[in-house]
Structure to design on (1287 residues):
């Protein structure tokens, strides 16, 4: 694993993230225009969705894929429970904020997933294309659990359930990921060929610039953070470790290949910083955005990119890799 | 000399995610329209905040022009959310031409 | 204590395509300058409108600061276009420092 | 034609448009930042202009090209007359709005053209490079006709003719299309080689994202539409059908190859939703933008992308394709 | 009836590069916060200017809401820079709800 | 040199710049959204930095590189002195504005450099990758000299030296250029391979659109310019000529290859219109931005792109090219 770990730190993708962190800490005025950052994130989702769909159109559907989907959805629903207990207990957060933060850890981070795919592909353990659908399915269930946990604490108007469900299914990133996935599945490899110079060849380069921006945002946010305690900082590292291990074992248990096993681990270990914060602003406006954004974006995200993806890959390898324990 | 009439101009700073609630309140108050303008960054009790569309944490100004009574009705309707949602609401008197529209 | 003087602040909501007419009217009224700020979306009698730069249907605010008389001259000059072009014009009194500039 | 029609619906380019329509109708919050949409439209125009210029630098100029240009300009001037009659008669619009709408149908839609070129190329009937110049030439003449038709109804100040002519010739899209066309013609295939990874390889992918955005805008606009009657909706489908047939016959009559014949049909059948609306705002501010934008953008544009391009291609094939009637 | 209190709204047009000086002055005046909104273009004595982020020559509005005395202190503090840096400062009275925040 | 000069004017990169100038002078409403222009400039810096770093990771470091760095830094510090004298004497500017303008001519223009690299590569005299580091090193020293020259004239508060030094080292473009350079050097050719479709293949195309925008901005600015005298216009052409010659001789003297010699000439001849104006706004707000931006952006920049790059290339060729005087 040493060579692999080293490889992480010579990959331009990760190095650009480090550059972003560095520039922000050095108080450089480097900044990416928001319209561009938004555009890059749409591009990354469309591209990863397409690639996943094309892969599934080649490999076809089988029962493993169904199992992976079920495992992902179950994890997204259930993981907030663990996080909630830890946040209320060790973290000393109130019920409201514990629920809001927990939702983030049940959901997923698209960019963490995408970076992991790049890294695992470079280590010759590419995750299956269907994992994109698993990711999309995991994005929003956690929101429901988080809200249920926080609800009794939330004052003011309750949002109608219909509005919540609409958001779970028609959230921008869910629609784009699954839509592009369907387009990839329908148009298949031959249809994809035409657009692959844009969506495939350009992918890693865009990811570099996007991670540069994420580095800048993550570091700047933590420098401004006021409501972050050391307990919360510890939790923001412990939960991705724990959830990553759970997800990796789950993937191994349902018989996924090594790359997909690791990818499921990364999905479980990652925390949302786009879809879930937006939902929390609407549903739990009294919750402190300073807490959940700083934890997921400024601690968990960098920890996953720089360290946890490597650890999870090694664990998946030990479990189901060549000569792995569970083979 | 053209005629002007006095109306209230209300500007509400709010999270982008909450805009629909505000505009619904404006419609409900019977006000004829509204306009949304962008905001770049700011500092309040929560500390420095930056426009971060990637994380969805950006804000906008919703501005609306209304006669005094409707303006007060709107302020009244929004008052409870002001503290829970951290809105910032300011209003003042302005002169408008074609006052019959508002 | 610094000295402030009273001026009018005029803000005009207009289609981007028509900005030049407004700024020309401002120049013609002998006002020293103007500033344009972006607008994101809005609702009026025409129904909901969104910033759609692709179709060119976006709007901006043109704001200008002027002494009372010039402000009224500008409002007078723009009044005919207000109904035909759907401009929205509001104005109010403000205090400025360095009043001699305006 | 069945296979070809089916091909349309497995092309990622068209499927992304459908995804945009779907997302907007499902009231998803998916949105493309405007700066990006504007940038993509500039990119598409620069790329198509360059490609056309390079193609002409290879093939050289001949009398057919001159004829195609003349036909296009004549069509742009004259087609508003038909549309105007239909809009005033069947459509029950007043003179002012009939003139404003008519101008849109005389002019062209760059994205419809670009999509048609992609589809016809996939069907092995690529239009000639000079059709880009024809498109640029067709953009603005219709504005003059539309204004003449509407003028007697327009109140308020008249715009000086000089201002109108300036707009016709130095409109942003005319300048960019013809400028890039000239650059392509001057620098030729060898000069283009250097920039082709950007302008050629990326083209279809950008078109996908652009059409995603167009789908969102078209569907959202029609959901808000207030001033649209069923009569106008019928016209927004009938005119592109009619003009498409006229253009295709004209192309066949002047001896264009099958791809260029179809492309001329598409240009005639398409309606402007960028250059002409902007001109109408200036010249006829009293006209109802809700009418002309909804018709051209939300009805005619989707109809052309999803159906009419296919129909026109089939007609062109029947006329001048292999074994066509007019050969 | 909800209660409103009177505050000053100050809007300062400034070069993006100089924003930090302004916000520092606001913080120094003991004002609770500020909000920055974008500006597209404008014309003043220097002639027409356009938003040109490439060359860094763009401007923004910094707006802040403060009680009368702090607002005057801020205006006083910024006055010297007004001429040297070409700031444009306007202020007027507004009503706010939740006045204790400002 | 005739063929080479001609080549400049058939290169799409230069032609798009000319198109931008033309469109602005013709008062077309063509415009590139600012977010996009900003994004393209970040892209160009990241790409050029990466390429330079990869090149150095291949070639290794040697004493020539050290010499080139020293020469560049010295030039950036000293060139403002010449400019200052000319501006105060012939240009009749006051001390304050002379200092501000002089700083621009000591610093460099990234886009001028990038365009020169493209042109010299097409002429088979590619500059060394380390010249990117030289460029980054030359960006900011001139600011210090310019401020020292202007300082006694500047009224109002002085900025603390710490703030100045921070800006010199952590300026956005310095950080991005050197950061990407380091990433390229660390990840080397194999790491670069993955991102090269984005950063390398797309490069010239992006440069085309960026120069289109620069053409628009340069021409629009000069049409609005009020404070520009004919004396200043002459200086804005004379200084790049003079500094270009100085830099080219310096490059030849320290033994650089022909491409790098020319590149050093171009760096010396170019004037900053991003980093330095931003610094001057902060440090010398009383200086007239209308003067320094118009000179560097609207006169010197086009002159360098269209003429001076060609002249400097020819001089470098005559000095150290095949059969050159100094070989
Ligand atoms: N005194 C003020 N003047 C102007 N804007 C303010 C002020 N206080 C707060 N804000 C804005 O309101 C937002 C939320 O403030 P707060 O609710 O105090 O965190 C901040 O990010 C600022 O943009
Ligand atoms: N009462 C209002 N308050 C604020 N903005 C308005 C109001 N009425 C209309 N507007 C704005 O003016 C634009 C045109 O309005 P209308 O001419 O009524 O269609 C709308 O899109 C809004 O942005
Ligand atoms: N009378 C005015 N009304 C509104 N904005 C102005 C006015 N005068 C100047 N400005 C703005 O202030 C900026 C600088 O003005 P100046 O310092 O006069 O060059 C201009 O670019 C405008 O955006
Ligand atoms: Na998770
Ligand atoms: Na047409
Ligand atoms: Na220089």
């Amino acid at each position: 694993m040493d060579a692999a770990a080293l490889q992480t730190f010579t990959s331009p993708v990760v190095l650009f993230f480090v550059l972003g962190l560095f520039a922000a800490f050095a108080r450089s005025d480097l900044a990416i225009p928001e319209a561009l950052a938004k555009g890059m994130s749409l591009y990354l989702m469309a591209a990863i969705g397409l690639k996943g769909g094309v892969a599934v159109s080649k490999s076809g559907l089988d029962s493993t894929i169904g199992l992976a989907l079920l495992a992902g959805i179950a994890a997204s629903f259930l993981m907030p429970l663990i996080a909630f207990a830890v946040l209320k207990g060790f973290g000393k957060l109130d019920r409201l904020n514990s629920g809001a933060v927990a939702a983030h850890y049940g959901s997923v981070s698209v960019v963490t997933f995408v970076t992991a795919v790049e890294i695992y592909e470079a280590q010759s353990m590419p995750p299956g294309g269907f994992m994109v659908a698993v990711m999309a399915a995991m994005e929003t269930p956690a929101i429901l659990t988080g809200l249920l946990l926080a609800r009794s604490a939330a004052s003011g108007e309750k949002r109608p359930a219909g509005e919540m469900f609409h958001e779970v299914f028609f959230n921008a990133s869910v629609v784009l990921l699954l839509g592009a996935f369907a387009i990839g599945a329908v148009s298949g490899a031959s249809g994809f060929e035409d657009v692959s110079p844009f969506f495939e060849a350009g992918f890693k380069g865009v990811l570099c610039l996007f991670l540069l921006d994420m580095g800048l945002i993550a570091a700047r946010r933590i420098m401004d953070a006021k409501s972050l305690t050391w307990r919360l900082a510890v939790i923001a590292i412990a939960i991705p470790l724990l959830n990553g291990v759970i997800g990796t074992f789950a993937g191994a248990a349902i018989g996924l290949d090594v790359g997909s096993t690791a990818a499921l681990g990364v999905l479980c270990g990652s925390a949302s910083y786009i879809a879930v914060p937006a939902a929390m602003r609407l549903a739990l406006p009294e919750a402190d955005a300073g807490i959940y954004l700083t934890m997921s974006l400024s601690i968990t995200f960098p920890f996953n990119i720089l360290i946890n993806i490597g650890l999870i890959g090694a664990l998946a390898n030990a479990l189901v890799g060549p000569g792995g324990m569970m083979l | 000399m053209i005629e002007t009439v006095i109306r209230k101009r209300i500007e509400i700073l709010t999270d982008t995610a909450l805009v629909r609630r505000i505009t619904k309140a404006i419609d409900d108050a019977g006000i004829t329209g509204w306009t949304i303008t962008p905001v770049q960054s700011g500092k309040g009790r929560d500390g420095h905040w930056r426009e971060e569309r990637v994380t969805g944490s950006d804000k906008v100004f919703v501005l609306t022009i209304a006669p005094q009574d409707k303006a007060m009705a709107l302020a009244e309707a929004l008052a409870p959310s002001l503290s829970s949602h951290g809105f910032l609401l300011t209003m003042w008197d302005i002169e408008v031409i074609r006052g019959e529209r508002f």
In short: Chain F has 15 helices and no strands. The CA atoms of residues 169 and 198 of chain F lie 28 Å apart. The interface with chain D takes residues 10-13, 15-16, 19, 22-23, 26-36, 118, 122, 197, 201-206, 208-209, 212 of chain F (CB under 8 Å).
